[in-house]
Amino acid sequence: MHLSKEKLAAAIRRRLLPEKAKVFRLFGREKSVHHILGGGQAANLILWRDKKISAGILVGATAIWILFEFVGYDLLPLISHGLIISLLTLFLWSKALTFINKAQPSPGYFPSYRYRPLRGFNRGFNNLWGPEHQIVTCDQRSVTIWLDSHSGWAQPSPGYFPSYRYRPLRGFNRGFNNLWGPEHQIVTGDQRSVTIWLDSHSGSGFKSIKPFRNGYFSASIKLQPGYTAGVNTAFYLSNNQVHPGFHDEVDIEFLGTTPGKPYTLQTNVYVRGSGDRRIIGREMKFHLWFDPTAGFHNYAILWNPTEIIFFVDDLPIRRYPRRNAGTYPLRPMWLYGSIWDASSWATEDGKYKADYRYQPFVARFTRFTVHGCSAFAPPRCHPVPPSGYGAGLSRQQSAAMQWAQRNYMVYNYCSDPKRDHSLTPECWS
Question: Residues 6, 253, 283, 348: which is the catalytic one?
Fold first, then answer.
């Protein structure tokens, strides 16, 4: 006699189960009713196995019966009133959530999605300072900057930003004329920028249309990378053409360099001095805390009757106070920009000369600001102050200047033992 697999399995189960564990089902069924009904939540509901659901159904049915039997409700009004109560509850709950969770309301207009982001960080920005503390991702979409324990190298804020206080010239030709080398000078179509260059034939220069007796003078300048030894790019005040050999001058000069070495920014003040026609330089030199060839940076001279301040990106790097009339420039001066061959002294005291295999040597100027009293202005024209507090630098500006001199100044004429300091009384007075 051969048994099917199902009957054989049933026989084995009956034999293995203890007698008390055996279940006797009506009509000899092998499966329970719960299993026949699917064994899920629906089966529990039909067989009243879930006490909570069963109680809910009984309460709901009882409430409906009371409404129909004693209140006189019909089915349609009951459904309508139930929907109204549900909608009202949802509305009140949504309003309550605004206060409970302090949910942010919608402004209705989203400008951040209206305008297209920059396609690359370098298309819109340049490093200002601390390039070793800045990383741009390969896709140019993100930049990471950080501050570490090298606090001596972290650029402080001066707290006052004159380059944003005064409006730039609307056009180069409104403030300047070509001085020499016109074929080595190009002004952009919008008159906002000028490019000058030096080659084996000539350099170039420009000069302000009118002289000034004080003022704030600035320009954003970008220098050429690579081999630039012997090249002098200058932005300065002078009256040399009116007083040759016995002139006053206030300089910002960029002294060219060799690859791998930084540019030197030289500040200088010439004064007619004691009247013996000797020109006495008052040089202070700096290596900048950024790469001046990577982008435009703002350089400025503030000159008034009591002090001269040199600025780099609004940070004061040098203050030259007036000690007496003999050591301070008081005669009107013009504003100049130029590029020329200074091989005899510019780079490491003339060790490296201009090499015209690397020509042309290019300098770009833009965002000129000329704000002050011209030589022809009435006496009521007031000098430009160096800070927001009037005369003198603020404490914050002074701290920023000390930071620049402590970390980036590489030469100070007052500290040079080879100099005759009897000719520079400001060093010891």
Answer: 253
